Amino acid sequence: MIRGLPGAVFLALLAGLSLAAGNWDNRPVGHRTFVEGLAVDPGSHPGQLAYTFDLPNLAALGGGSSSGGGGHSGGGGRAALDPVIEAPNLVQAMSDMQRRMPREIYFGQLQALILAERLPASAVEDAVDTLMANPEVDGTAYVATAKDGRALLTAPAPSERLPSDALGLVLSCAGCEPLYDPVQLWQVYGNLRSRLGSLVLPEVAPGPDGSGLAGLAMYRGAQFASSLEGNDALAYGLLRGFTRRSNLVVPVSGLGVATVDWLSGHGTYRVRAERGRLHVDVRVRVKGQLTALQAAPGARVMALALASRDPRLLSATSRLVLSKLETIVRKQAGQGVDVLQLGAAASGADPTAFAGIRSWPEAMRTAQYRLSVNLGLLHATPAA
Amino acid sequence: MSVRSSGRKARPAKEVTGGRLGSAEMAFFVLASYTGLGLFAFPLETVSHAGSAWPLAAVAALALTFGVAYGVAVVGDRHPGVPFSDLLISVGGPYLRWAVAIPWAVLDLTLAAVATAALCHVVVSSFLPATPFSVVLAAFIPVVAYTASQGIEGMTRAFAVVLLVSLGFLAVVSAFTASHIQYPAALVPHLTGLGPWLSGVLSSLYAVSGISAVFHLSAHARPGERRVTRQAVLAGVSLVIASRLAQAVFTVGTLGLTAITAYTWPSMSVIRLVSSHGFFFNRLGLLAVILSTASVWAYVACRIFSAGALLVPVGWRVKGNRASSPGFSMALAAAVGLFAYALEPPGSEPMVVGQVVNPGLLVLGVLFPVVWWLIDEVRTRQLIRPNERR
Fold this sequence. Notes:
The structure holds 2 protein chains of 2 kinds.
Chain A: H1 4-20, E1 32-34, E2 37-42, E3 49-56, H2 58-62, E4 80-81, E5 84-87, H3 90-100, E6 104-106, E7 112-116, H4 121-133, E8 142-146, H5 149-154, H6 163-172, H7 185-193, E9 200-205, E10 212-220, E11 223-228, H8 230-240, E12 246-252, E13 256-274, E14 277-295, H9 304-307, H10 311-334, H11 342-346, H12 360-366, E15 368-379
Parallel strand pairs in A: 1-6, 2-7, 7-8, 14-15
Antiparallel strand pairs in A: 2-3, 3-4, 3-5, 9-10, 10-11, 12-13, 13-14
Chain B: H1 13-17, H2 23-35, H3 44-50, H4 54-78, H5 84-127, H6 133-148, H7 151-176, H8 194-204, H9 211-217, H10 228-259, H11 266-272, H12 284-311, H13 326-342, H14 348-382
Helix pairs in contact in B: 2-7, 2-9, 2-10, 2-12, 3-4, 3-8, 4-8, 4-9, 4-10, 4-14, 5-6, 5-12, 5-13, 5-14, 6-12, 6-13, 7-12, 11-12, 12-13
């Protein structure tokens, strides 16, 4: 198709230009430092924030020194470097950090963003917006809350070489944690963008065997409000449909103490607005498996198959779940927290339906809730 | 009036009817011609104009596109082997031909420039932040110039191979984004008024802008095959419409109506979220986005081909079946490159889409084809043209 000198010049130009493009950015991996985790804590002065960057120490990792002490062993130095930068916002912290490091700081491998409980809403929004605006970050990092972000990020993880590797494992394992709804950066960003948003983040705490999930952090907008733990968190998980394998111990009068395992649930809501006030109808379907029944002294020993259909046991279990749910909903709604994430559901719903509602937190406070629980129990059978 | 007696020197009959494309090849050309523009951003503009009526606006725009393309294909099937510019001359003489060809060629080059600028912006802002815009552009333009100079048959062969791989992979990866849908309420249409809906329809037109390729298809149809353009449009445009719908549903369902407006290229951002463990590398979405740039290459080459076929002087179409000479394609590609370079300032490319591309497509891509089809219907019923009815 293309002949002669013009064709040759054209092809040479084509080849030259194709080779020239694309080599302006790529740096050898050894010239980069990968930020694996980032924690945001309140700073030592008002208006300052403390940013902890979790960086693998390439010198220590490359030497192959096995880090028995979990990230802080001797030999080739510590496996992780955790510099803390105090700055008013993340952009400044990033450039201060870059000034201190010999290598280019690269955020494309970010696994976890940890937000401290005591952060102001503006700091949460700043961290999320700044990260999302960074072209290296694709929004798939996990976001979690901790009482002390720096302590969590630097806590030793005996099973992994890097603490943030362990953290990444915990936060990405949606199927293996009994009560966990993974939240990624892009979801937080979208939630904060939508006028009606309110965050619910997993709360992570350091433990002797590595970090683990402690509960759920409830936010009013981007402001931390309170945390849910234990059975409160379980009931909330049933409502929102993210419990996978949780259990409840239910005392049943006249029967004994029942253990219900494999709890899962799903809540459906009907919301209508009348004269600026929300009426919320919540039905939660709960499924579980009766695995044990310890008969009360003097009570008749009952087969599990029979007990799983016993009205006393069913009503005691659903009353327990319901009472937890009512406490959570009333307490959270009283703080103006969008506990059912109604704002997210309403964003995009019929725009005329919620036109009368001026302030969403205020609507949360004044809303009328009606809750009901529908429980179905299976009973344990031997697997083999 | 007969096509052959249009005041030019007579050519052997073989050249006029000598195409080599069947419906399957044509369908690939149609797919290439429609996919490239709107791949990164649609349905951002639709949502920001129509609000929660966006599904109705998107469906209306897609249905309109299909109807128009089918009408043009019906006309084309009535005149197989006849180039579009000859058909224009046979209907209204050389004046009509230039009155249609020049605006359409300008629109084609504008569409090509907008798609090129969008691609370069995506590459620079998401993948190669340190590389200058002009370098990415300068690497892209010779490639499309070379492709467009291959003529429709060479292009179709290349598209069949490359698009099957890249768009197929993109489709598989996009299916994974279904698990990210968290705002199902945003997918339910609520018609709040006719004004937002209409402006939503208008602002969606750019995402299905490949009609100009359909004009030229029947000139290259394999002799003796009937309804071949219609079959190609049925297959190609249906595929495009289905994929645009899926793209819109996944994007809005994932980001919601409010947050979507914070993104510049929402559908690309959504696909980039896909990652998978167990595949040999886990950033599947990133690979899909990189591969999908091939569809911009195909799209721009189609636009240059179409503009060339419209603008080519009457006596030029002599060797083989190429609509234009390689030199002509390269000149047009250079024009596209300069235009795209002018679109470097961020925000200028959506502005051109809103103020030039969408109104232009409404007039030249919707109204003109409807009139074109009507004229041909009337002429077919009035005239007996035994040498054209096949």
